[in-house]
Each structure stands twice: as structure tokens, then as C-alpha cells.
Specification:
2 domains; about 230 residues; Rossmann fold; 6 helices; 6-stranded antiparallel β-barrel; alpha/beta; Thrombin, subunit H; 5-stranded parallel beta sheet; 11 strands
Length: about 230
């Protein structure tokens, strides 16, 4: 019988711990959580995780120092660590590599990048998205004109937008939608077009024409609103 996977998440922010847990919910692994370097080392020694995702910006002992402590410990040095830094701190990627990390990501976390980075080190990480069907009007501006479409399914990492496609793969859309919650919350977020379902050449024939969108730079407030409304 194969050894069960174990993944350690290290961050002093409950929001990001919860977000990473949501990203990994399709992965058959036990998840451990630590809010400090000391707690991370103690959990690693007792559970021997298969992979660690660790934030750099932590109080007292930061993630770079903690990573070096892992790599200096004969029992823990073989555990791969993905360090998570600040996209506005360009030196952190080189610092992470020097500390012995196996990967580097930045906040705000992108679900696809998070899972792909983990999958490169741990093949058991499941990159599928859990989607929820919906029927939500979406508006955005394109070519100086306000356009309107319909979100037909949504996940923590993106949505499918039914609309007559004019934009192309890689384009960014500033989206505005009203959630179907009691407060009718209006949220704004950025979507990058990952794929286009054209009427005459559909990539997914079971979908209407429109855009498959990936959310980027999703804020903590928007992430909470999406989870509260859709459980994604």
C-alpha cells in the first residue's frame, strides 16, 4: 500500500492557510498547518511531510531562515519546500533559491500556478478544479464599450463566461459581477482569458461560446465572498 501523502502549509495568515487548503481539497493528502517556523519544524519532525508550502513573511523567524533550518537538519533536508514571497520584492526569488527552496511563488496566490508548482514536486497533487454551476450576469469594458455576458460556472480559480467572443487568449478583463447572496454583493476582479470557445471551432463542444477565464491577483475580500457564496 502506498504511503499516504502529507503536505505542510506554513503561514501566519488564517486567510492564506484556508485558501491553500481550498486549492488542495481534491488532492488525496493529509494537510498540516503551522503558523510559525517553530511549529513548522516540530510538525515536520513528527510527521515527515512530502512537501511544504511556506510563507517568507512570518514574525520572529521568517520563511527563508526556517527553510535553511530544514536544509541544515539531516532528517528534514530531503523535504522539498516551496517558498511564497511578495511579488513586489524582486530579490526574494534568488534568496529563496539560496536558502535551498525547490520552488517559489508570490502572493496574491494563483491557484493554477500553486498547484502546478506543487505537482512538479509531488505528482499526487490534483490540479482539477471544483466548479459550481451558476447563472450570474457579468460586465466589463472592452474596446471602449461596456460588454455583458453570463457566468455559467465558477471556481476559486476562474469562471466560464458565455459571451460573443471578441477578445483573445491572454487578454485581461476587469470583471464586475453581483453575487446571488442575501446582500447582493458586487465584486470586481481581473480575469485572464485562458481559452476561447469559438462558435465555429469550439474547444469544448459541451460549452457555449465564450471565454474560459483564470482569476489573477484575487483579493482576500473577494476570495472570502466567493467561498461564502459558492463554497469554492
Amino acid at each position: 500500500m502506498p504511503t499516504p501523502l502529507c503536505i505542510l502549509l506554513v503561514d501566519d495568515s488564517p486567510f492564506f492557510l484556508n485558501l491553500e487548503r481550498q486549492f488542495l481539497r481534491n488532492t488525496p493528502a493529509s494537510l498540516l498547518e503551522a503558523k510559525s517556523a517553530g511549529e513548522a519544524l516540530a510538525l515536520a519532525r513528527s510527521h515527515r511531510p512530502s512537501l511544504v508550502f511556506m510563507d517568507i513573511d512570518m514574525p520572529e523567524v521568517d520563511g527563508l531562515t526556517c527553510c535553511r533550518q530544514f536544509k541544515g537538519d539531516q532528517e528534514l533536508q530531503g523535504i522539498p519546500i516551496i517558498l511564497i514571497g511578495d511579488k513586489n520584492s524582486p530579490d526574494q526569488q534568488a534568496q529563496a533559491a539560496a536558502a535551498g527552496s525547490s520552488g517559489f511563488l508570490t502572493k496574491p496566490l494563483d491557484r493554477r500556478q500553486f498547484l502546478e508548482a506543487g505537482h512538479r514536486l509531488l505528482a499526487g497533487i490534483d490540479r482539477r478544479e471544483s466548479r459550481r454551476d451558476c447563472d450570474i450576469p457579468v460586465s466589463f469594458e472592452w474596446g471602449g464599450v461596456e460588454r455583458h455576458g453570463l457566468c455559467v460556472d465558477i471556481s476559486s480559480g476562474g469562471m466560464f463566461l458565455r459571451i460573443d467572443p471578441r477578445a483573445g487568449k491572454g487578454d485581461l478583463l476587469q470583471l464586475r459581477l453581483r453575487l446571488p447572496d442575501r446582500e447582493r454583493t458586487v465584486i470586481k476582479l481581473t480575469g485572464r482569458i485562458a481559452w476561447v470557445n469559438l462558435p465555429d471551432a469550439p474547444i469544448k463542444p459541451n460549452y457555449p461560446f465564450g471565454y474560459g477565464l483564470e482569476f489573477i491577483d484575487i483579493s482576500e475580500e473577494v476570495g472570502i465572498a466567493l467561498r461564502r457564496c459558492f463554497g469554492v
